[in-house]
């Protein structure tokens, strides 16, 4: 067995071998060849050593490139090791390129000074995602539905720090109460979670006395804030589900009036259901008589980020809210463009929310931009994919997640939880509590830790009241209907 078979999920994420779990490396390599349309062959076996202890040798040839010999006491063992060695080489090569990806993409921009902001961010996201997907050994897909959080540093360089693809949600039978599963697997939500992972990594490295490229201390709140010269951008390949995309075309006459009345409504996507339904609508029970799982749409969640920030309740113990400077929409269809600003932040600018939110919380109105027409993402890609990838800056490779179970694909049984799960974040949170001297927080459950983030919770209450007052309807929380936050 090669060195790659050691299974561990350390700070670097899953090890190489855990990326294909218990599957036979020979079939993983054959699948690799099929999905990428390259040939995979093995050299003829050769034999060495005395008769009673002979060794077989063979090597995998992938796309014409011969890899290091696999050696074993039988032909089968030698072939398996050859496949494993080839996979390791391919993986290491992809990983090395991925490390350079952001840097390479920025260099290409230097020769193209006329590119728009939206155009650059789109190209960067696509470029990095493409390389990230190449490190995917199992269930290879190239997903067109993608999202990313991109940082713009003070020297004008962009860095994609959190990537996500996917358009599925967990099935209710896979819900668990230990925080191990990912519930909402839409690209923008996954990209945001990948960004949260990035924040944890950065906070782990933060030292008060030394300058940090991302954070500085806010003397007013005493918490960390993002430096003024760093900007945050969200790229999404198509308009978010819900209010931004619920009105593809508004006709004239009675249909138009009906559609307008429902504009701005908070909506949920529903298990086994079509479209996004206003939260105050009655939903009949599922086939088995059980309540159907409902999840707030991406339009509503992005809108919430523009009041509460992207950091969420847990990280609000350590940092001020982080707000987006811009949202880049890769493509759209019909009249969607007229609905996007309302869905993403317009619903926050009506009423008194601006006065009601207590600083540092505020109503954020990001610039919304679109790449030039010739670079629109192909929009006709509604095919739902079960598997999707995520990657956080600094990770060796992508993680492949099954959107219907909310768990990592491959991996040993003990390593099934995604590195983006609530459970993984809570472990990082506890580590930060030790680092930033908050022993009081080590006694709490995940849910209690969230509730103790008082300023965040107060702002959330203000926001939800605002939605109700303006007639947008109630916010539906999965946490209030399923036991998903009570673990410790
Ligand atoms: Zn969505």
From TrEMBL:
Residues 24-92 form the DRBM domain. Residues 162-477 form the A to I editase domain. GO terms for biological process: adenosine to inosine editing; RNA processing. GO terms for cellular component: cytoplasm; nucleolus. GO terms for molecular function: double-stranded RNA adenosine deaminase activity; double-stranded RNA binding; tRNA-specific adenosine deaminase activity. This is Double-stranded RNA-specific adenosine deaminase 2a. PROSITE patterns: A_DEAMIN_EDITASE, DS_RBD. It comes from Haliotis diversicolor. It holds the Pfam family A_deamin. CDD domains: DSRM_EIF2AK2-like. It comes from the Eukaryota. Keywords: RNA-binding.
